[in-house]
Q: What sequence folds into this?
C-alpha cells in the first residue's frame, strides 16, 4: 500500500495539522509515514502546504512532484497543485473558498466539500479542515476513520484535548458528506 | 522495542543529543534549524543541563569550545551562513583537539540565499572551511531516525578522536517528520586526562593551538593528519540494488533519500541502477567505491549543488578510468523522484543504452 | 467635510485604525478580502474630521484621507 | 477636496508581507515620508538587514544593498565612505543590531559614521519565529525562553539607545514608539532630526522604534500595541538621549 | 630576616617574553598574587586571549585554555557554565576586548556571567606591532594612524569600563593603573574585589588596567610609565565604576 | 623601464592596489600582513582614498561589500584566521555579484597556529570556505613582482566578473623583499549599470543574494556557475624545464619559488625534472596538466600542507592513470631547496630510476 | 634592617624599580647580563627600608625583599 | 655569480638593516637580490635573523638551509647557524660577544671581528653592525665596498642620513680589519 498527498492552503487554515493527523493515523495502523511542511515567507496569513506519504514499506522521497491526492483549501493552492495531481488521482477542494468553475481538470476525480457550512453545522467554521480531512480519508481509504480520530490525541497539544470531541464530529461530518453526498 | 514517535528531524537531533549526555547547548537562531535550540531550551533544564542563546554564531562556537574543554558533552547548531561564521572556531577546536558536536542543517546559498534544502556546504564541511589543515568527521543522515542515531554517535566520535564532529543535514531533514524509535544509549567512557578542571593535585594543563618553536607545528600537523587518516575506520555507507547494477548513482543526505524512490522506479522499469549513499562524508568511502569500480564502470553523482561531492567520487573511482556523470540541482527548488528519474534515464541511455 | 478611502485589498483587518480614530468611527467588518482578511470600514463618514490618525496608524497604507 | 494623506512616493505601491498589525509597516512608511520630505530619494542608498524587514528593498523606491545579518552598519560605512554625498541608512531589528551586530553598531557609532540607523526593537527575533532577542523583557515567553526570560541565566533586556549615547561618536540618539497617534507624531519629529543630522553632516544618527510583533508575542494586534505602552515604554523610555538641539 | 616579597606561587618561575618595562608583567604578577591570596590556584581555569599576553598559559601555574582573538568571554562562559565551582578568568588586551571582541564582552557582562575579566588597555595593538586600538588616544601615532589618530575618521578612544557599567548585568567594574606604587596598591584592592565578586557568586567582575607599551609607543620604559599618568589617566579615570561596596 | 625598487612583498601588494585605482581599504591587523594596512594608512590619503581600520575582519569584509557595491575599487587583507571570519561575507559578495579584492597572506594553522608561511588555506580559497556554491578567482603569486602585478590584475578581474578575487600569498611572500619594477597601469572600464549610486534619473537598483521564488535561486546558482566556468579563460601557469621532463613537480606560491632552486639543482644533476606552477588556483589549470599527462606520466605535488592542491592535480591528470606522488611540509618550518631536492630525488629514483 | 636581592639574569634593565624606590637607592648599571640587558643594582643597601615598592613595580619579578 | 648569507643576532643589533644594505648594494650593481627576515616572538630584545641572496640570474629560493656565508652577532646565533655554513663557506663572528673558544668549525673559514672595539674607534658601539658588514663584504667580495656605502642612502630612513658618514667610516674600518688584520 502506498499513498501520497499534498495539503495546501493559507496560514491560518490548519493544513499542517491536517497533515500531522493523517500521518499519525497511518502510524496507528502500523504503516510508515512521512510529513514534510513548506512555509512561505510570511509568518501569518501566508501560504503553507505539506506533503504526507504513507506506505507499508520504507518510504523513499518525502516530497512529491505529482501527488496521487491533493487537498486544496484555497484558490491559490488549487492553481498551484490542481494541475499536478496524477492521472486517476484525487483532488479534494474546499468549496467554501474555491468556486466550482475554477475546478476543471481532466482525468482526475474531484471532490468538492462545502467545508465551512459543514463545519458550522457541527460547531464552528474553524473545524473546516477536519471536515475536509474526514472526507478525504473516507474517499481515499488511506486509513480508517477510526485511526484518524485516534490520531487527534498525539497530534493535538494537550491544551486542546478538550476539543477532540468536536473535531471528531467534524471528521465524521466530512466522511458522511462523501458517503451520502450531503 | 520502544513505541515509535512521530517527530521532526530537528527534534530528533536534539533528543539524540540529550540522550547521549549532551548537557550544554549554545546556539543562535537561524531557519531551518530553530527546533533544535527551541527543544534544547525546553528540555535541557529537565536534565540539569544548560541552554544559552548566544549573541551570535561566533559566540556559540566559542562557548562550545569552552564547555567542551572541560570535558562536558556540548553541542551547537546552525545553518549555512551561521556555519560560515563558525569556521575560525572550528579550526581552533581542531587545532586544540577539543571535541564537540556541530550541526549544520544547511540552507540554500550563497549569501542569504534561501531556506530550501541544499547541499552547497559539502566542500566547507569535508575540507574544512576554516584556515589550516584540519578535518572534522562529517555525518550525513538521510532520515529522521538517522538524525537521532547519528547524533548519538557523533558525541562518541567527538570524544574518541578529541575532534569536532559535524552533522550535515538540510532543511528537508530538519523539517520533515517521521516515526522514530528511541534506543537505549550506552555511554562509552573516554580518557579525560586533558580537560580543564583546575589543577588540583596534578600538573596544570594547557589547551592551545599555538606552536611556535621550529618544527613543532609541522609535527603537530602531521600528528593531526594521522588522526584524520585513522578516522577511516569509521567510514559508513549504504548501498541498494547493487546486484547487477550497470550504473551506480552516488548521493548523500536528503537527495539520497529522494533517490530511494527514484532508483526503485528505475528498477521497476528494468534499468540496472544501484544506489551508493555515503553516510560519512569525511572520511569519504573512497576505497569502497574504488572496489565497486572494478566491476561497474558507470557512476553518476547527484547533488543539490553544482558539483561538489562529485570531486570525491572522481577521486574514488578515477574519472579518467571510469565514466563519472553528474546531475546537480542547486537549491531553490527540490527535485522530485520523477525529475531525478528522467535525469538518470538520460545518462543510462547514453552510457548503457 | 472630510472623507477617507480604504484600499480594501490591502487591508489585513488588524484594527489599528480602529484604535486610532479619536471619534471611534471605524470597525473591522466581517467581510473578507481576496487575501482572506476581514477588512476595516467606516459607517458614519459624515462624522469624520479628516484628522488622518487612522491613516497614520495603518501599517499597510490602506487608508487615504481627503479634506 | 484635497488628498491630505497619501502613500509616500518613496514607498513602492505593493502589498507588504508583514503580519496584520505589525509596526514594521508603519515605520517603513515614516522613513519613506522623511525621504520624500527631504527630497533625498534619488540620493538614498538603503542597507537592508536580515530580519522581518529583509524585503526593505522591495518596498523602498531607492537603491538598496543587502547586508549579512548584523553587519548593516559595516556595509553602510563602506557605502557612505565611498559616496559621502548620498543619504545612507540602515534598518535593523533587535536581533540584527543588538545581538549578532553588537560590535558593528557600536563601532560605527563610535567612529561617528555619517549614517542614519533605524532600529526596530520588538523584543523578539521575528523572522526566525519568535526566539529571545537581547531586548526580550524579563519574564517574556519566547520559543527559546519557554519558561520566560530569566535574568539570571539569559541576561538583561539590553538598552541600545542608552548604550550608544555613552559613545562620544554618536550625534543623535533617540527612542520612539508608534503604538498610538501621540507617540507616532513624536516619532516623526525624532526621525526628521535623525535625517537632518546626516543631511547636515553632523554625524551618526540613531532612532530606536519600539515595535509590536503580534505574531510572536501571540497576541492580537490590539493587545500587542497595548503591550508596547504598558510593558515596553516603562522599561525602554521614549525620548531624545542625545543631540536633540538644533 | 624574613622574606617579605617573593614571587607568587601561581606564577611559574620562568623568564617572560615581555619587552623591558612592559606593564603586562606587573599585571600578571598581581593576578597571580590574588590567586594565591584566595587559595584558588587549584580551582582556576584561565582563558588566554590573543595579544602580547597570549603566553599566559606558560606563566600561570593553573589550567589554561586558549581562546580565539576576542572570544575569551565566550570561551569563559562555556567553561564557567560547565564548571560553576571553578574560578574562571580571562585576560585580554584592548584590541582583543574592545575591537574584535566587542560583542562577546558586552554580552558576557550583560548575561552577568560569573567570570572575572582582566582587561589590559595599552592604547595599542601590542603583539601585531603597534597598530591603532579602539583605545588609542586622540593624536596618538601608531603604525596605522601614521599622522596621529584623527577622531573624525578613526572614531574616539573607547571607554570600556564606562560602557560596561551601563549594563545591569555587570556587578563590579573598575579601572586601575600600575604606573606607580600608589596606583599599584589601589589596583591590588580593586583586583581583590573582582576576585571576591566571583568567589562569592555575586556576578561579573571586570578590572581595566591602564598599561604601558614602551615598544610600540616608541618610548623608554620611564617615558611610557609617565605617559600613563599624564595622558591616559586624565582621559581614562581610575576608580570603581560599579559594585565597590562589600 | 622604471628604476627597480626594493620592497617588501606586502608593500608591493599595497602599491599595486593603489596604482590599480583602489581607493578604499578596510582591514584589521594580523601578522604577517600588517605592512599592507600600514602602507595603506600612510599612502591612501595622498590619493584621496580612505583607509579604515575596522573593528574586526567581519566588519572589514562587510565594509568592502558596501564600498564595492557603489562601484568603487576597494580591498581588504588579512591572514588565515581573519580570512576564516570573512567567509560569510565572501559568500554574500559572490551571491550578490559584488567585486572586491581580498588578500590572504596566509599563516600557519589550524587555530592560532603560528606566523610561518603556510599553504593550508588552499581548500578554503579554491572551494569557497563559506556556505553555498560559489567560487572566487584565486591568484597565487610567487615573487614580490608578481604580488604587485597580480594585485593590479585582481582589480580588473574582480570588475570584469563582478566577483571577489582572492590573492593567496603567505608569510614568505609578504615578508620577503625583492626589487620590483613598477609598470604603467591602464585602467580598463567595466559596465557600472548595477552600482549603488542613488536612483537619480533611473530605476532603483537592488543588490542582494536572497532569492525566494520557486526555482529562482536554482537559476541564479547555475548562472553563477556558468560565470565561474567562464573564468577558465583567465587560467595562468608557468612551466620550467619541461622539455624531456620525466617527472613534473607541481607547486604554487612560496614553495614553488623555493622549488625553482631545487629543480635547477635536479637538472644540474641530470635528473629530468620539470616544474609546473599554477598561478590561478581557481580556475585550476586542469586542461594544461591533462595535456602534459599525455606525454609525461609522473607527477609530484609539493605543498606547505598535508595535501590539498594534490587533489586538483589528481583530478587533472587522473591518479588512477598516471603516477601522482606527494610531499607535504605543513607549516612550522620552511623547507629549503636542499630538503625538497632530497624528497624529489626519492620519488625520482622510485619512479624513473 | 632590610635587604633586597636581584635575580640578575631576569632583569631587563627597564628601570621601573629605580622610579619606584622612595629612597632613590636603585640604578641601572652598565653591566650586561647574558640576555644582553643592563641590570639594576643597589649600592647603598643599608639605607633600604625593605618597603618592597621596587619589587612591586618590577615587571619581571627580579627583586625579592627581606626584612 | 651567486651568493647567499644569513645574518643573525639579537633584536637591537641591527641585523635587519645589515641585510637590507647588502641587498641594496647588490641592486646597485645590477644584480638580483632577495631579503627575507625572520623575527622571534618578542618585540624587543628577542632574536632576529635574515637571509640575503644575491645573484646575476633569477633567484629561486629566498631562504637557505645551508648558507655560503653566515654572520653571527651573538652566541645563540653562532650555535644555531654556525654548524649550517656550507663546506668552504665563510662564518663571520662578532668577537665582541662571542668568545673564540666557541667557534670550532671544520672546513669553513672563520672571521672574528672585534666589532665593538672597532666601532668605538670610529664613533660609538652601535656601529658594530656596519663594521661587521664592511668586513664581510671585503672578505667575500660579494659586492664592492663602494656599492655598500651607496646602499646606505636607500636603506636608511631619511632621518638618519646625517649618520651616513659615520656609518661609512665603520664599514671602512671593518674592511680594513680584514685587509690589515687589525
Ligand atoms: C548569520 C546569520 N545568523 C542567523 C540568521 C537568521 N536570522 C534571520 S533574521 C534573524 C533575527 C531576526 O530578528 P530581528 O533582527 O529582531 O528582526 P525582526 O524579524 O524581529 O524584525 C536571524 C537570527 C541569519 N540570516 N544569518
Ligand atoms: C582573528 C584574528 N584577527 C587578528 C589577529 C591578530 N592579532 C593578534 S593579537 C592582536 C591584537 C593585540 O592587541 P591587544 O589585544 O591590544 O593586546 P596587546 O598585544 O596590546 O597586549 C591581533 C589583532 C588574530 N590573531 N586573530
Ligand atoms: S489599520 Fe489598515 S490594515 Fe489594519 S484594519 Fe485598519 S485599514 Fe485595515
Ligand atoms: S480621519 Fe480621523 S476621524 Fe476620520 S476616520 Fe480617520 S481617524 Fe477617524
Ligand atoms: S513576525 Fe512579528 S515582526 Fe515579523 S512581520 Fe510578523 S508581526 Fe512583524
Ligand atoms: S609590545 Fe608592548 S605590550 Fe607587547 S610585550 Fe612589548 S611592551 Fe608589552
Ligand atoms: S624593574 Fe625589574 S627588570 Fe626593570 S630594571 Fe628593575 S629589576 Fe630590572
Ligand atoms: S625595598 Fe624600598 S627602599 Fe629598598 S630598594 Fe626597594 S624600594 Fe628602595
Ligand atoms: Mg526583532
Ligand atoms: Mg593592546
A:
Amino acid at each position: 500500500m502506498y499513498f501520497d498527498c499534498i495539503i495546501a492552503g493559507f496560514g491560518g487554515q490548519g493544513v499542517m495539522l491536517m497533515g500531522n493527523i493523517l500521518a499519525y493515523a497511518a502510524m496507528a495502523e502500523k504503516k510508515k509515514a512521512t510529513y514534510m511542511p513548506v512555509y512561505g515567507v510570511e509568518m501569518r496569513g501566508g501560504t503553507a502546504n505539506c506533503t504526507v506519504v504513507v506506505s507499508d514499506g520504507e518510504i523513499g522521497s518525502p516530497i512529491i512532484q505529482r501527488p496521487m491526492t491533493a487537498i486544496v483549501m484555497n484558490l491559490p493552492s488549487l492553481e498551484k497543485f490542481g494541475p499536478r495531481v496524477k492521472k486517476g488521482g484525487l483532488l479534494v477542494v474546499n468549496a467554501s473558498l474555491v468556486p466550482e468553475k475554477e475546478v476543471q481538470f481532466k482525468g482526475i476525480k474531484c471532490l468538492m466539500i462545502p467545508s465551512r457550512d459543514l463545519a458550522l453545522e457541527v460547531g464552528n467554521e474553524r473545524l473546516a479542515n477536519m471536515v475536509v480531512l474526514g472526507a478525504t480519508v473516507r474517499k481515499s481509504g488511506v486509513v480508517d476513520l477510526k485511526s484518524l480520530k485516534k490520531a487527534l490525541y498525539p497530534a493535538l497539544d494537550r491544551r486542546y484535548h478538550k476539543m477532540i470531541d468536536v473535531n471528531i464530529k467534524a471528521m465524521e461530518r466530512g466522511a458522511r458528506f462523501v458517503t451520502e453526498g450531503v | 522495542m520502544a513505541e515509535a514517535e512521530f517527530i521532526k528531524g530537528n527534534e530528533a537531533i536534539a533528543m539524540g543529543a540529550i540522550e547521549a549526555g549532551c548537557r550544554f547547548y549554545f546556539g543562535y537562531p537561524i531557519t531551518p534549524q530553530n527546533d533544535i535550540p527551541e527543544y534544547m531550551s525546553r528540555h535541557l533544564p529537565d536534565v540539569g543541563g544548560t541552554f544559552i542563546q548566544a549573541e551570535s554564531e561566533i559566540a556559540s562556537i566559542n562557548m562550545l569550545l569552552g564547555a567542551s574543554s572541560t570535558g562536558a558533552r556540548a553541542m551547537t547548531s546552525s545553518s549555512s551562513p551561521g556555519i560560515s561564521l563558525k569556521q575560525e572556531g572550528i579550526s581552533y577546536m581542531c587545532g586544540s583537539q577539543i571535541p564537540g558536536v556541530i550541526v549544520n542543517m544547511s540552507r540554500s546559498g550563497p549569501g542569504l540565499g534561501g531556506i530550501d534544502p541544499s547541499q552547497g556546504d559539502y566542500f566547507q564541511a569535508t575540507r574544512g572551511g576554516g584556515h589550516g589543515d584540519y578535518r572534522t568527521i562529517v555525518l550525513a543522515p538521510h532520515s529522521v531516525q538517522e538524525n537521532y542515531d547519528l547524533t548519538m554517535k557523533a558525541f562518541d566520535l567527538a570524544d574518541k578522536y578529541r575532534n569536532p564532529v559535524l552533522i550535515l543535514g538540510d532543511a528537508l531533514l530538519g523539517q520533515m517528520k517521521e516515526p522514530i524509535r528511541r534506543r537505549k544509549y550506552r555511554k562509552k567512557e573516554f580518557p579525560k586526562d586533558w580537560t580543564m578542571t583546575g589543577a588540583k593535585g596534578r600538573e596544570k594543563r594547557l589547551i592551545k593551538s599555538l606552536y611556535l618553536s621550529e618544527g613543532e607545528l609541522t609535527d603537530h600537523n602531521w600528528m593531526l593528519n594521522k588522526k584524520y587518516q585513522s578516522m577511516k575506520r569509521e567510514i559508513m555507507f549504504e548501498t541498494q540494488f547493487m546486484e547487477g547494477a550497470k550504473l551506480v548513482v552516488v548521493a548523500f543526505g536528503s537527495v539520497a533519500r529522494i533517490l530511494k524512490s527514484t532508483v526503485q522506479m528505475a528498477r521497476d522499469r528494468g534499468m540496472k541502477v544501484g544506489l551508493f549513499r555515503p553516510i560519512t562524508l569525511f572520511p569519504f568511502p573512497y576505497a569502497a567505491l574504488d572496489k565497486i569500480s572494478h566491476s561497474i564502470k558507470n557512476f553518476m553523482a547527484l547533488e543539490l549543488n553544482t558539483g561538489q561531492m562529485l570531486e570525491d567520487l572522481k577521486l574514488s573511482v578515477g574519472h579518467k578510468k571510469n565514466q563519472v556523470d553528474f546531475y546537480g540541482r542547486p537549491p531553490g527548488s527540490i527535485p522530485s523522484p520523477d525529475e531525478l528519474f528522467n535525469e538518470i534515464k538520460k545518462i543510462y541511455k547514453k552510457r548503457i543504452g | 467635510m472630510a472623507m477617507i478611502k480604504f484600499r480594501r485589498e490591502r487591508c489585513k483587518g488588524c484594527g489599528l485604525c480602529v484604535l486610532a480614530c479619536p471619534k471611534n468611527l471605524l470597525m473591522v467588518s466581517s467581510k473578507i478580502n481576496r487575501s482572506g482578511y476581514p477588512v476595516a470600514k467606516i459607517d458614519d463618514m459624515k462624522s469624520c474630521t479628516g484628522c488622518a490618525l487612522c491613516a497614520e496608524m495603518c501599517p499597510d497604507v490602506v487608508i487615504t484621507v481627503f479634506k | 477636496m484635497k488628498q491630505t494623506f497619501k502613500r509616500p512616493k518613496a514607498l513602492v505601491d505593493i502589498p507588504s508581507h508583514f503580519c496584520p498589525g505589525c509596526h514594521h509597516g508603519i515605520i517603513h512608511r515614516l522613513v519613506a515620508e522623511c525621504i520624500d520630505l527631504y527630497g533625498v530619494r534619488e540620493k538614498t542608498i538603503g542597507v537592508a538587514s536580515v530580519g522581518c524587514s529583509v524585503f526593505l528593498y522591495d518596498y523602498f523606491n531607492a537603491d538598496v544593498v543587502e547586508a549579512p545579518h548584523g553587519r548593516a552598519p559595516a556595509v553602510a560605512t563602506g557605502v557612505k565612505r565611498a559616496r559621502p554625498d548620498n543619504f545612507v541608512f540602515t534598518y535593523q531589528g533587535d536581533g540584527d543590531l543588538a545581538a549578532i551586530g553588537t560590535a558593528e553598531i557600536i563601532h560605527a557609532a563610535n567612529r561617528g559614521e555619517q549614517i542614519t540607523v533605524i532600529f526596530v526593537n520588538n523584543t523578539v527575533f521575528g523572522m526566525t519565529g519568535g526566539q529571545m532577542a537581547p531586548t526580550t523583557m524579563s519574564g517574556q515567553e519566547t520559543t527559546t525562553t519557554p519558561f520566560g526570560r530569566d535574568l539570571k541565566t539569559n541576561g538583561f533586556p539590553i538598552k541600545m539607545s542608552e548604550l550608544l549615547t555613552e559613545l562620544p561618536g554618536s550625534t543623535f540618539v533617540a527612542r520612539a514608539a508608534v503604538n498610538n497617534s501621540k507617540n507616532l507624531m513624536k516619532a516623526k519629529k525624532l526621525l526628521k532630526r535623525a535625517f537632518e543630522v546626516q543631511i547636515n553632516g553632523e554625524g551618526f544618527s540613531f532612532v530606536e522604534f519600539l515595535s509590536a510583533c503580534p505574531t510572536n508575542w501571540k497576541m492580537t494586534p490590539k493587545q500587542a500595541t497595548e503591550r508596547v505602552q504598558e510593558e515596553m515604554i516603562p522599561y525602554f523610555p521614549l525620548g531624545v538621549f542625545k543631540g536633540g538641539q538644533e
